[in-house]
Design a protein that fits this description.
Layout (H helix, E strand, L loop, with lengths): L2 E7 L2 E7 L35 E6 L2 E8 L13 E8 L1 E6 L2 E6 L3 E4 L5 E5 L5 E8 L6
Antiparallel strand pairs: 1-2, 3-4, 4-10, 5-8, 5-10, 6-7, 6-9
Length: about 140
Amino acid sequence: MPEKEKLTMKDKTLVVEREVTATKLVEGEKLVEHFSIYDPKFPPNLNEIRGGPAPLVEGEGFRLELSKRRGKMTFWHRNLEQDELIFVVQGKAKWYTELGTYEMKAGDILIIPKGIAHKVEPLQDGDYVALEIKSTYLRKV
């Protein structure tokens, strides 16, 4: 039975009906990849300057990193090249920036422009987990 499929490109959308079936991969094509941020291979970050977020995915103009913290950052961080988007996945934390302090919980997003110093302090027992997107230009739409 045909199913609807929505094709998008820039600001254009096309809806078609077609039979959706699995296809065979052609050598060199991209694969669908699946992994979990809770995999034990991603341990909590160290609270030292060398203990930054773990890189997960990168593409043209952006990088996705995983931050797991149990304790307060003992240093300030200032990204001089990219804006940072912080998406809290688990736990609560207080983010200190040069422009103010923000209490964050699961589901909250914070965008820190490049050049702004910041640090994080988890607010509860257990792990604080956040995904961080680094890109040359981020803004709320």
